[in-house]
Structures are given as structure tokens and as C-alpha cells.
Write a structure and sequence with these properties.
Layout: H1 2-20, E1 42-50, H2 55-66, E2 71-77, E3 82-88, H3 94-103, E4 107-114
Antiparallel strand pairs: 1-3, 1-4, 2-3
Helix pairs in contact: 1-2
The protein binds copper (II) ion.
Amino acid sequence: MKKIMFITSAALFMYLTAQICGCGSCEAKANSIENSTVVEKTKTVKLKITGMTCAGCSSHVTQTLQGVKGVSKVELEYPGDVATIEYDAATTKTEDLIAAVEKINYKAEIIEAKK
Ligand SMILES: [Cu+2]
């Protein structure tokens, strides 16, 4: 139940931030949010995100990562550009996280991975 409410508010937040981001790169990127997250083998990885130019970008990256299947938690520092992501290793690989970020035209590289 909590999860459903969270996803709803995340979608609303994404909608609102899409209105205020003027960088252009955040537009036309309505991404789908997975609502079938099952967390079993949770791992944490830190990714260095590059290419973010405004708070709208950081929230866009955050929402995108949260939309990746298996991701349970995303904390993105902006400025700082470090994303700390908790994800289910049985569902998702770090490559999937990086690919999701690259798909929306930012770059990501692993700083630190731990179990
Ligand atoms: Cu932006």
C-alpha cells in the first residue's frame, strides 16, 4: 500500500518538475515507472552521474532510476552528482542502471559497489 502511494507521488513530482525544468534535455522523456518491484537480494551501488545541469535534471535522473525494475531506493546528491541506489540484484544489474541513465542522455559510472 505504501509503495503504491509512493509511486503516485513520484509520478506527480516528475510531472511538476517537468514543468519547471528549462534545460530542454528533460523534456519528452516520459518514462514508465515499474510498479512490480520485488526486493530480495538488495545491493547498494554508488554511481557518478554526469551531464546534470539543473535540479530538474537531478529529479529526472532520480525518477528514471526509481523506474528501473528492481530498484528500491535512490538518493541523488545534486550538486555532487552521486547517486546511491539500492536494488535487487536478482532482478537488476548495475549495467541496467547505467543504461537507464544513458538512455536519457546523462552518463553514469560506478564509484562503489557493495553487497
Ligand atoms: Cu534539467
